Amino acid sequence: MKVGVLALQGAFKLHVQALKRLGVEAIEVRTLENFEASQALIIPGGESTTMSFLLESSGIFEALQERSNNGMPILGTCAGMILLSSKITDGRNDQKPLKLIDIEVRRNGYGRQIDSFESDLMIKGFENFFKGVFIRAPLVESVGENVDVLAELNGQPIMCRQESTIVTSFHPELADDDRIHAEFLEMVSNS
To answer: How far apart are CA 135 and CA 143, in angstroms?
Structure first.
């Protein structure tokens, strides 16, 4: 199994390490060729506007939409959630979302860097808490009817799934807990 981790910008290294711990070949995706060699993709946290522009200039943006529509599994964390959403509140006018999951998000909805926090989360299907690390995290403002909410914080969705796309407001790669990556890989195996 070959899983790509978008490495154009942002915090991708810890996702690569998580995949390696789980025995999977990780491909750092910087080009369309890297992307095409991947069976699935993780879009990490980072600066969503910059990542959006780099996705377009690299030619990956449209290829990602096409492969997602054909069932390619995708995990988006923090900025990845923003990029995959159907609508971005407080985004730049020239920032285009991929529209691969029917949610509306607000950038930095939980506050700026100084407002970062951790919280024990109950995630659907997990027996024990998962430590969620929130850094300039997006806030899910609305969820479409075909979206399954997998976790909430104070009544707000923070982890969602629609078909083969999973998104989190938090950074699972910072939790020292590979369960979300393992669940994603199980989805990849079954696709």
So the answer is: 21
CA neighbours within 13 Å on the CB side: how many for 129? 8
Strands (E), the chain: 2-6, 25-29, 40-43, 74-77, 85-89, 101-106, 117-121, 130-134, 139-143, 148-153, 156-162, 165-168
Is 160 among the residues known to form the active site?
Answer: no
d(CA 113, CA 147): 28
Sorted by where each begins, the domain ranges of the chain are 2-189
Q: Model confidence over 26-45: pLDDT tens digits?
A: 999 999 999 999 999 999 99
Catalytic: 78?
yes
Q: Is 15 part of the annotated catalytic residue set? A: no
Residue type, 50: T
Identified catalytic residue from 15, 173, 181, 183: 173
**Global pTM exceeds 0.90:** yes
For the domain covering 2-189, report its CATH number: 3.40.50.880
Residue in 160, 171, 181, 183 annotated catalytic: 171
The C-alpha atoms of residue 57 and residue 45 are separated, in whole angstroms, by 19
